[in-house]
Write a structure and sequence with these properties.
alpha+beta, 3 domains, 12 strands, Rhopdopsin 7-helix transmembrane proteins, rod-shaped, five-stranded antiparallel β-sheet, about 600 residues, Heat Shock Protein 90, five-stranded mixed β-sheet
């Protein structure tokens, strides 16, 4: 171009390395196209090949006619820069018309064909520099714009390379023009090989920078596509979950026990009563619970055993009452570092709890009817004793025997206390447990004693022998005292009814025993009444399933008992033993020390 590109070995090496880089660009473009990723712009592949050919032409310029160098080699150089610009524009999504690719080279060829143009260095240099640097500035601006918008490191490197090379070449050209288009002797001779070195640096580095930028762009594009697909998938899942009457959640726990909410979706309003979007900033709905201990306990059980469930309540937004929720969860993944992922769901069970409360109230009323006979039986004797004691006290008072009067009156007082205890237990049983009351430790002996105060007379009249065997380590459970007493009442009354059909002389026994099982207590109630028919046993806890006649049973007692035990965090089951039916109640264990 200027007559001082006299370093052909460097340019030959640049041409060879440029061709190798071009081959890598083409190969990468084909591979990307085959796997559906963004391919290297075809214009860049052409730019790399054109730049390699231009470097080869510059290396041969001393052996080629000047017209060929000025006409063909510089045309190829212009084509390389134009293709580089076109590829950058296309990468940024603003590709110009393809005809513009040939415009600068054709303008240059047209100028070279003008008579006297090639033999007029100032005109030739001015024309070439204007075309080359006009395109080069556009390239640098577009590549820099890609870096500003997307922060791709290869774009910054390419912009710096192009800017540096073209700036230094412009300075050399300006210096050459000032000194008469020839490099002077002396200190300026150091610049003679610099243009060839810059073109070699440009030609060898450019293909690899283009390849790096294309790959970075592809990685960014693939990341954005994956993110878009994830957003679309999440939106679709949230839309699907939004129609469910449940809240689905995914929660992660790190090895230290810290937790974070990964996902929550579902119909917030249907489950909690809160307007949609009002709980977005609430990481854990259990924070709104009136008592968080059931959810916390269920979560700890799930982390240890794999699954957990809890019923809990939260205040309604308007403060008019409580909403009951049931949260079930399981461990989805346990990782080597100790962290875990828990998935679960929460549903609204307010109607279920209200129905259970109504059923429990109905069950208590039904039980009251059965206990009326026992109550009358139990009250008859204390009242008779009171009457007898009073009469005797009157008689003794007449005879002025003070010591005897005192003893008689003591008997009267004892029987009155007994009557008050019976009536107190009856009233407490009828009143039931307050809504939302937390579970608390219960001594099994104490619960049974309270039950026997109410129905003990009925069992004695039926000539039933009660036997208990409570293991020392399984004497206390966590639950609701009144609910547990109601369950025991139902089971003991059912056992009495079953024993009523036993043949004369057959044993009439009811045995209660307990044993520890991990963190729970199993309470077994066994009778000698012959057992339950298999077809009935499979459905015995369903409402209205009964073996009694229409005048002696409603079929709700065991169904209500099942709900009461479940509400206490336990379970109840039945099986047939050799002598009769065995009901097993499983409840969380409570250390006896907690009862103090």
């Amino acid at each position: 171009m200027l007559g001082f590109l006299d370093a052909p070995p460097i340019l030959f090496a640049a041409a060879f390395i440029g061709l190798v880089g071009s081959a890598l660009l083409v190969r990468s473009s084909r591979t990307s196209a085959q796997r559906g990723a963004m391919a290297v712009p075809a214009a860049w592949c052409g730019a790399a090949v054109a730049q390699a050919l231009s470097s080869l032409g510059h290396a041969l310029r001393g052996d080629l006619p000047a017209e060929l160098v000025f006409g063909l080699v510089n045309t190829v150089q212009l084509l390389a820069v134009t293709l580089l610009w076109f590829g950058a524009r296309r990468l940024a999504g603003h590709a110009p018309h393809r005809a513009l690719i040939l415009l600068p080279p054709l303008l240059w060829l047209g100028a070279c064909m003008t008579p006297g143009f090639t033999s007029t260095p100032p005109l030739r240099i001015a024309t070439y520099v204007t075309l080359l640097y006009g395109i080069a500035l556009c390239v640098v601006a577009d590549i820099a714009g890609i870096y500003r918008r997307h922060r791709l490191r290869a774009a910054l490197d390419m912009a710096v390379l192009l800017g540096s090379v073209f700036t230094i070449l412009a300075a050399i050209i300006l210096y050459a023009v000032v000194v008469g288009l020839r490099m002077p002797d002396g200190a300026g001779t150091v610049l003679r090989g610099l243009p060839a070195l810059l073109i070699a640096l440009y030609g060898t580095t450019l293909p690899f920078l283009m390849l790096s930028l294309a790959r970075e762009w592809d990685a960014m594009d693939q990341g954005e596509r994956r993110a878009a697909l994830l957003r679309e998938g999440r939106a679709a899942v949230e839309h699907l979950h939004g129609g469910l009457p449940a809240l689905i959640f995914v929660r992660e726990f790190d090895p230290e026990g810290r937790t974070r909410l990964v996902y929550r979706g579902g119909n917030v309003e249907a489950v909690t009563g809160f307007p949609p979007g009002s709980l977005t900033d609430v990481d854990n709905l259990a924070l709104l619970a009136e008592d968080r201990s059931p959810v916390t306990l269920a979560m700890e059980i799930a982390k240890r055993t794999g699954t957990g469930s809890a019923d809990w309540s939260m205040r309604r937004p308007d403060g008019s009452g409580v909403t009951w929720l049931r949260t079930s969860m399981r461990v989805e993944e346990r990782r080597a570092d100790g962290s875990i992922t828990v998935v679960g769901y929460s549903i609204n069970i307010t109607n279920e709890r209200e129905a259970q409360a109504r059923a429990a109230a109905s069950g208590r009323l039904a039980s009251l009817g059965e206990m009326a006979a026992g109550l009358a039986h139990e009250l008859t004797q204390p009242l008779q004793a009171i009457m007898t004691g009073a009469e005797m006290a009157q008689m003794e008072a007449q005879q002025l025997e003070a010591a005897s009067i005192e003893a008689r009156l003591e008997t009267v007082i004892g029987q009155v206390v007994r009557a008050r205890s019976i009536i107190g237990n009856l009233r407490r049983f009828a009143r039931g447990e307050p809504a939302g009351a937390p579970v608390r430790p219960i001594l099994l002996e104490a619960a049974l004693d309270n039950v026997m105060v109410l129905i003990g007379g009925l069992l004695r009249d039926a000539e039933i022998e009660m036997m208990t065997d409570f293991a020392e380590e399984a004497r206390a459970v966590l639950g609701h005292p009144v609910a547990l007493e109601q369950v025991l009442t139902n089971l003991l009354m059912n056992a009495r009814d079953a024993l009523a059909h036993a043949p004369p002389g057959a044993p009439r026994n009811i045995t209660l025993c307990s044993e520890a099982a991990g963190g729970t207590v199993r309470l077994r109630i066994a009778d000698t009444g012959g057992g339950i028919a298999p077809e009935v046993a499979a459905r015995v806890f369903e409402p209205f399933v009964t073996t009694k006649g229409p005048d002696t049973g409603t079929g709700l007692g065991l169904s209500i008992s099942y709900g009461l035990v479940t509400a206490m965090g336990g379970s109840i089951g039945v099986e047939n033993a050799e002598a009769g039916a065995v009901f097993t109640i499983t409840l969380p264990h409570a250390p006896v020390v907690e009862l103090g």
